[in-house]
Amino acid sequence: MISLQPPKPWPHAAVILSGGDSRRMGVPKGGMLLPDGRNMIEHTRDMLASFCRQVVIAGQPHGVVGHQVIEDLRRDAGPLAAIEAALASDISPQYLIVPCDLPLLPAALLARLLLGDDDGMTCFTSASETRVRGLPCRIGGECLDEIRSMLDGGDRAVHRLADRLGPAATRVPIADRERDLLWNVNTPEDYERAFRLLKDGNA
After folding, report:
1. Cα(165)–Cα(93) distance, rounded to whole angstroms?
2. Which residues span the domain enclosing 90?
3. Is residue 145 part of a domain?
4. Residue 39 DSSP code
5. What is the CATH number of the domain that holds 123?
6. Does residue 17 fall inside a structural domain?
7. Most exposed: 79, 94, 98, 148, by fewest CB within 10 Å?
8. Domain tally, the chain
9. Among 14-23, 139-148, 188-197, where is mean pLDDT lowest?
């Protein structure tokens, strides 16, 4: 069950991932409006700012101002390259990495990731899925060398980073009924469903 208590203040930085081509959506996802008038980056920013010391944006800010923007060190290398750029920035010793396209994600669920080895990685897993969910995740600066090694070898899969890190990766179990809260918006149909759920107050 998701705790109804707000997460405790976290003294590190959150990173919103807003890169990518959004090919299946057809338009950049981060700038798409939700029922309350905020775009998806603003929605994610406000949620993270409620309990994280600092919020930075990796990718296009889509009109959101007042936050440091991190640019990838490698072009077209996916979310893992954005994580590499965040860790290389030395903004913080730890980061909470959150894609901008998870509009149903509550802060209380996300705060479960603020556990584990400070220098390692924490990610979600469920009994009905064969692999861990790479995103969202909490990750420490000591993972940078492993990420660089993966990218240098052509491996861009964030979920495989947990396997590479071994015992330094903490897996946080979630119930099957909570999986929809981690559902990401990739297509117009996904967006319409998320918009409807948020408008009706069912998320």
Report:
1. 17
2. 10-199
3. yes
4. B
5. 3.90.550.10
6. yes
7. 148
8. 1
9. 14-23
Residue with tokens 């590479």: 164
Report the chain's mean pLDDT, rounded to a whole number.
90
φ, ψ at 79 (rounded to 5°): -60, -30
Cis status, amide bond into 61, omega within 30 of 0? no
Q: Would the pLDDT of 42 be above 60? A: yes
What is the bridge-based pairing of β-strands 52-59 and 10-18? parallel
Tens digits of residue pLDDT in 1-13: 455 465 788 999 9
Global pTM reads: 0.92
Strand, helix or coil at 13?
A: strand
- At position 164, the amino acid (one-letter code) is R
Are the CB atoms for 110 and 178 separated by under 8 Å?
A: no
CA separation for the pair 109, 75 (Å, rounded): 31
Residue type, 99: P
In a domain, 82, yes or no: yes
Radius of gyration over every alpha carbon of the chain, rounded to an integer in angstroms: 16
Report which DSSP code applies to 28: -
Residue environment code for 121-140, b if the CB has 16+ CB neighbours within 10 A, otherwise e: bbbbbbeeeeebbbbbbbbb
Asked whether residue 188 is assigned to any structural domain, the reply reads: yes
